[in-house]
Write the structure tokens for this entry.
Amino acid sequence: MNEVLTTCPYCGCGCNFYLIADRDGEITGVIPSREHPVSQGKLCVKGWNVHEFVNSPDRLSRPLIKESGTLQEATWDEALKKTAAKLQEIIKKYGPDAVGFFSSAKCTNEENFLFAKFARAVVGTNNIDHCARL
Ligand code: SF4
């Protein structure tokens, strides 16, 4: 059994816990960190169950592109090229405020900062929001 100290990816509180992995490396559970100044040995229900999504068969691990109404697996290169082309097409036709950017609490602060910078400084829109506000 292995224990790996890490930060909860679900929200900005930043609770710490140990992910428990079995001999095969499969993550099987969570133990809160008593020493961490935020969580102090406690977690909310999301933190206690965070290990469940790692090996979920429903987890998306590759990009999907909708073709003729059906989602098809794609490479990251294909998905990023298609996204960039569509964004450019919409912005050229309707202007930068025709698109919006929606970020995630599962990203790091640095990733969210870059995402906001990209929306505001590169695309030129303030249409940006975050799932933590829902
Ligand atoms: S355990 Fe709950 S409160 Fe703590 S970071 Fe995770 S989601 Fe947020």
Q: What stands out?
A: The longest strand covers residues 2-7. The pocket of iron/sulfur cluster is lined by residues 8, 10-11, 13-15, 39, 43-44, 46-47 (CB under 6 Å).
